[in-house]
Amino acid sequence: MSTGTKDFLLALQITFNNFIAPMIAVLMLLGLIYFFWDELALVLKVISRIISLGFLMVAWFIFVLTDGKKVANKRIKGIIDDGNSK
Length: 86
Known about the structure:
The protein is mainly α. The chain is built from 3 helices and no strands. 0% of the residues are buried.
């Protein structure tokens, strides 16, 4: 192979590795997000509810430590009822 051909192939490889391959990967990722949008929204909603439950459990534990279990259950029930009424 001549030096010109080797230089051309090297330039082509650099172009593909630095520009075309990442663009293909991003387009494929965007396509997957578009195709599975409903499923992703459901997963994000479930994750959000799990995180909210975790914060509610921490709040209940703090209420138990400060006020006792009976008062903590009443306060958490009030928080849950307020959240359900909105």
